Amino acid sequence: MMMNIEDIKEYLLQRYPFLLVDRVVEIDLGKSVVAYKNVSVNEPFFEGHFPGKPIMPGVLIIEALAQAAGVLGFKSQEKKPKDGYLYYFVGADHVRLKRPVVPGDQLKLEATIITGKRGIYKFDCRASVDGVLVGSAIILCAERKSDSD
To answer: Is 49 among the residues known to form the active site?
Structure first.
């Protein structure tokens, strides 16, 4: 099942410049997701990270993985922010960053559900470029009903 950017925006509240998932190419509900982030030289963070030697900040690679995991969690539960639900990034364990991500790279984001209990989900996540691992983490997300006015 593929999802384009408009589909993704139904499941994530983040917007430019903080929406870091451009396309979902595979999703196995309740199990795993494969998504992509196209890294452009026009990304606002490259202006300061680093001038003349642009490198995507590692924390944004982890955030992109968390967003892909969030799409998987929401889609698997058939819940959306418009229905009053949010997924919060609540932790990351075993974070490893292996090599820089630079403009022109296509960041492949993979997340697999390890556990999901009482609204707390644990995902095994991997980021790669051209088949080479650039980062990995175990990411924790919490599903919460948002406060409505």
So the answer is: yes
